[in-house]
Amino acid sequence: MKLVLLGPPGAGKGTQAANLAKEYKIPAISTGHIIRTAISEKTPVGKIAEEFIKRGELVPDDTVVELVKVRLAEDDCKNGYILDGFPRTLAQAEIMDETSIGVDLVLDIDVPDEKLVERLSGRRECKKCGAAYHVLYNPTKNGETCDKCGGELVMRSDDVPEVILKRLEVYHKQTEPLKEYYTKQGKLTSIQGQKDLAETTRMVLDAVKEAGAKL
Ligand code: AMP
């Protein structure tokens, strides 16, 4: 299955991508995590991306598309993948349709803006593997290190109020039009993601199972 997770920052795409990856035994690929790794490793792409991420803006399409193509060419993607955070613009979606990057199903996790601001400020990410946590709603076992790999937990520099507001603005302007794009292709399924984590996880798994069965 080739699945895209759509939704605003803080909707829980990373957490749900990890659940789905376990369920379907396919990799979850987060463009945000790939870009943050490139920034911390100071690669040429990382140097281009850093200024955009800091401001809460999107990294240029050609840069992100190239990163995704390289990642999807890896062996573990041959039975499918879950894309978390890609595509994020109409241009990226069109490139996916024109090239070999396929999409079977798009799951949109919808959450109102007020809820997102609260969620993003309590969010923590593993510096090493990118696993997503929340200090109140999804804490790690010892509250300090990643449950999966023992990595250090950090607050993302773009999870601060000014940048959060910019990212929400960018989402509504540049990413939300993708809902219409994929509705027209008959690929979009939407769920409401503002309930608690267990309830959202159940809805996500049910929605993907139901839509996946029709493929
Ligand atoms: P995320 O971890 O998905 O919230 O992404 C963090 C940041 O990475 C975004 O605010 C963008 O600056 C950048 N980014 C991630 N995915 C994309 C994408 N598909 N297109 C452009 N920029 C992206």
Any overview of this molecule?
The protein is an alpha/beta fold and 215 residues long. The protein has a domain at 2-110 and 175-212: P-loop containing nucleotide triphosphate hydrolases (Rossmann fold), CATH 3.40.50. The protein contains nine helices and eight strands. The protein has helices spanning 13-24, 31-40, 44-55, 61-72, 90-98, 113-121, 161-175, 177-184, 197-213; strands spanning 2-6, 28-30, 81-84, 105-110, 123-126, 132-134, 153-154, 188-192. A five-stranded parallel beta sheet has the order 2-3-1-4-8, with helices on both faces. The protein is globular. The termini are close together. The mean pLDDT is 94. Bound molecules: adenosine monophosphate.
What is shown here, in short?
Helices cover 48% and strands 15% of the residues.
Count of strand segments: 8
Topology pattern, helix = H, strand = E: EHEHHHEHEHEEEHHEH
CATH class of the domain at 2-110 and 175-212: Alpha Beta
Give the strand line-up of the largest sheet.
2-3-1-4-8
Strand content is: 5-15%
Helix content: 40-55%
- The number of helices is 9
CATH superfamily of the domain at 2-110 and 175-212: P-loop containing nucleotide triphosphate hydrolases
CATH topological fold name of the domain at 2-110 and 175-212: Rossmann fold
Q: What does the radius of gyration come to?
A: 16 Å
Mean of all residue-level pLDDT scores? 94
Structural class: alpha/beta
Low-confidence stretches: none
**Each distinct ligand:** adenosine monophosphate
What global shape is seen? globular
Main pleated sheet: 5 strands, parallel
Distance between the termini: 9 Å
CATH architecture of the domain at 2-110 and 175-212: 3-Layer(aba) Sandwich
